[in-house]
Design a protein that fits this description.
The protein is 38% helix and 20% strand. By secondary structure, the chain is an alpha/beta fold. It has one domain: 3-Layer(aba) Sandwich (Leucine Aminopeptidase, subunit E, domain 1). The chain has a six-stranded mixed β-sheet, with helices on both faces.
Length: 169
């Protein structure tokens, strides 16, 4: 079966999917942007569970329940800070997507929604972040057996929507 890839502009916290990916910081204790929005929408149980996880390294992931969200799980991933990773920014950002997809498969997920990882507080150039996101997910789908039926890229801004759409094909 071919996995459907879509790009939408909207609020990732409103989606009814199996997995929502959170563009988190290393503490996993909430922050600004999509991280803060996910923590607010999920409720205090998310913060309490995140406190037990011991943070997360750049390019890695941790999974929690989704609490008050319509999703089943939240996969938290930490992007590379652009210009601060000794030239490994691309590899680390790509790892965020690959490891999120791996966890979704381990969980038996049929659908996963990604925000624009790294393009906010971590200063990744939006165009490059979009290209890495789409290329990495497409590569994962080609190289791996997956039960995922749908991958959704959720952008907040119109410019990110336009950038992701150009790589969606």
């Amino acid at each position: 079966m071919k996995t459907k890839i879509t790009v939408i502009q909207g609020d990732i916290t409103k989606l009814k999917v199996d997995v929502i990916v959170n563009a988190a910081n290393k503490t996993l204790l909430g922050g600004g942007g999509v991280d803060g929005a996910i923590h607010r929408a999920a409720g205090s149980g998310l913060l309490e569970e995140c406190k037990t996880l011991g943070g997360c390294e750049t390019g890695d992931t941790k999974v929690t329940k989704a609490y008050n969200l319509q999703a089943k799980y939240i996969v938290h991933t930490v992007a590379s800070v652009y210009g601060k990773e000794g030239g490994h920014e691309r590899e680390l950002l790509s790892s965020c997507y690959t490891k999120s997809m791996e966890i979704a498969d381990q969980l038996g997920a049929k659908s996963i929604a990604f925000p624009c990882i790294g393009a906010g507080a971590f200063h990744y150039p939006h165009n490059e972040a979009a290209k890495i996101a789409i290329e990495t997910v497409k590569r994962y789908l080609v190289e791996n057996e997956t039960g995922l039926e749908e991958v959704i890229f959720v952008t907040f801004s119109e410019i990110d929507y336009i950038l992701y759409k150009q790589y969606e094909l």
